[in-house]
Amino acid sequence: MTALDVQVNxxxxxxxxxxxxxPVVGTGIEVPLVTGDSLPxxxxxxxxxxxxxxxxxxxxxxxxxxxxxxxxxxxYTSQVCTALYEGARADVAAFLGARPDDVVIFTRNTxxxxxxxxxxxxxDGPGGGRVTFLDIEHHANLLxxxxxxxxxxxxxxxQRATLVSLRAELEARPASLLAITGASNxxxxxLPLAEIVELAHAAGARVVLDAAQLAPHRRIDLxxxxxxxxxxxxxxxxxxxxxxxxxxxxxxxDEAPAYLPGGGAVREVTLTHTEWAxxxxxxxxxxxxxxxxxxxxxxxRTLSQLPSGALEAHEEALRTALTDRLNRLPGVRTLRIWxxxxxxxxxxxxxxxxxxxxxxxxxxxxxxxIGVRDGKFCAHPLLSRLGAPEGAVRASFGxxxxxxxxxxxxxxxxxxxxxxxxxxxxxxxGRWAPTPxxxxxxxxxVSTTGAADRGTSPCEPLTA
Length: 464
Ligand SMILES: Cc1ncc(COP(=O)(O)O)c(C=O)c1O
Prior knowledge:
Distance between the termini: 49 Å
Strand order of the largest sheet: 4-10-9-8-7-5-6
Structural class: alpha/beta
Domain Aminotransferase class V: 43-409
Keywords: Lyase, Pyridoxal phosphate
Number of helices: 12
CATH class of the largest domain: Alpha Beta
Cofactor: pyridoxal 5'-phosphate
Largest sheet: 7 strands, mixed
Family: Belongs to the class-V pyridoxal-phosphate-dependent aminotransferase family. Csd subfamily.
CATH topology of the largest domain: Aspartate Aminotransferase, domain 2
Protein name: Selenocysteine lyase/cysteine desulfurase
Bound molecules: pyridoxal-5'-phosphate
Strand content: 15-25%
Number of strands: 19
Shape: globular
């Protein structure tokens, strides 16, 4: 299969959600239950990390034999990989609708991309280096800005009121940059980007879009939207191979100090002087992640080939099916920031009265073979304002998800609400877990020098 020959499912467009929209790796894997049975895994954790598209895995297999260093190698495979890497940059630029002078920098992920941009905001331009953002943001779009001059605006109970507050803030205290998410990683609500860009530009501020969640679900067009910078993660875009992107206007990126001083970021070095390269190389010091970039670009090409509206219709069918059922269950509350938001991506967070979110997630995994995320989703201020300071459960989905997956989740939550769990659960090493937990891990996942360490999340303190 060649890079452009990807399989788009011909699922009946009249019945969105019945079948996966695109093939993803891992569909149908059986996972063990605490009862000793097994079930096909229902992966409803796409917002944390999405599975690899099949086309991405195929592309990886195709290019892997040619893997070599880029830019400085004269060997044939180095030339192949250099073309692959720079071609990936061009294809990502096309995917993002970049302007001719925009720069695409490969990073590790969205967090890395936003930290990089935080070092590039000039202090001497309009806005004096100040960055303004909302309190609903993921920590990745909040903490990097707090190192410098910043203002955090509290979102209102409607998007309308939120825009009024943003406009008032930017008029009262001009900013260099407005940092805004495209879609909430907690509720999935999509922000009114066109109006936000308009009000920011009217106040002289540039806009950076945190598209970690938006990019896998909606087309982004830098040129037509006027968004100045965009950050995204390959692992949320069906290319889980360690690359992310910061793309946008060249001037700030060319003028800022190199993000990772080292080999590749320079034109010339003497013992006393360094002549730095222009962006993107200026900020890509060290050996680049060629395969990460190539697979991210392959995911972008594949998603671009989806018929217009197909992704939106697929996800809306899943989302409606899930929220309709959850909202009918007593004691189950789906979370929402705004009363007037009109569109959402495939992310649904909810709480269940009487059950800690971690327990619900452990139950769904142990008794139903369903993977969701629980906790505060690295958005602690938002969870507090939503009245869920202990966290919530989040189901998230995408091109590989079907109605069957979300119906399994709804049925499992209904069973919890009506009959309770059938196994016992306790907090083990800081996380809710079935006790006992007879499920083993595959041999290859377990350390050969000790017992399996399932790890704890540094972001999510215990919610017992
Ligand atoms: C909205 C949003 N922004 C930023 C991030 C950070 O992404 P990464 O962990 O890939 O850097 C996430 C991750 O969940 C996110 O949901």
